Amino acid sequence: xxxxxxxxxxxxxxxxxxxxxxxxxxxxxxxxxxxxxxxxxxxxxxxxxxxxxxxxxxxxxxxxxxxxxxxxxxxxxxxxxxxxxxxxxxxxxxxxxxxxxxxxxxxxxxxxxxxxxxxxxxxxxxxxxxxxxxxxxxxxxxxxxxxxxxxxxxxxxxxxxxxxxxxxxxxxxxxxxxxxxxxxxxxxxxxxxxxxxxxxxxxxxxxxxxxxxxxxxxxxxxxxxxxxxxxxxxxxxxxxxxxxxxxx
Length: 248
Prior knowledge:
mainly beta, 22 strands, 1 helix, 7-stranded antiparallel β-sheet
């Protein structure tokens, strides 16, 4: 692998102050975190090694990467608490050699400035717009109308299909079945789910709701949304194509 090939990973410096905690102790505090696009969809935070407050102890593992070179694994140790294998450094990468990658889920809390963040850093090039609309949205499953609304909120998110958030009173509540599924989104918050039972068939986790979304997404609070990929959605009487996404 040439140095040019190894350096293909996209790296940008953020101006946000980022702090990371584990075991109640400060692991890192930096005003110059790096955003690294390990995958195309969203970035990860890499922390300058000079801004670590924890100790790194080699754990004997290596992690080869086509674009970053060979990563060296470390345990994160702070005030007697240890997060095994929670750090990685890529010493042969020209752009990453002085940075450490902390495993997101191994840490207890991440903060941008004084606000907690979840799941992964928000992509500065992704945008979420939520617009009130008077479009007529009707949702069918197995030929049965399960939702019918003329007051949707439409959420436009970079790289994803438009999502139609509907008042619960516009859904067939009698067809909803509670689900234990819960997901998190760095842009919208924590979502709860329902399955739908139609004609004796149960369609799992087709509907979600953000009851207490992040401040930026308050306009969808308490509204329900269906996976466009899995149901038939009619907009002003016209059946929409089912989009092809990882959620299909």
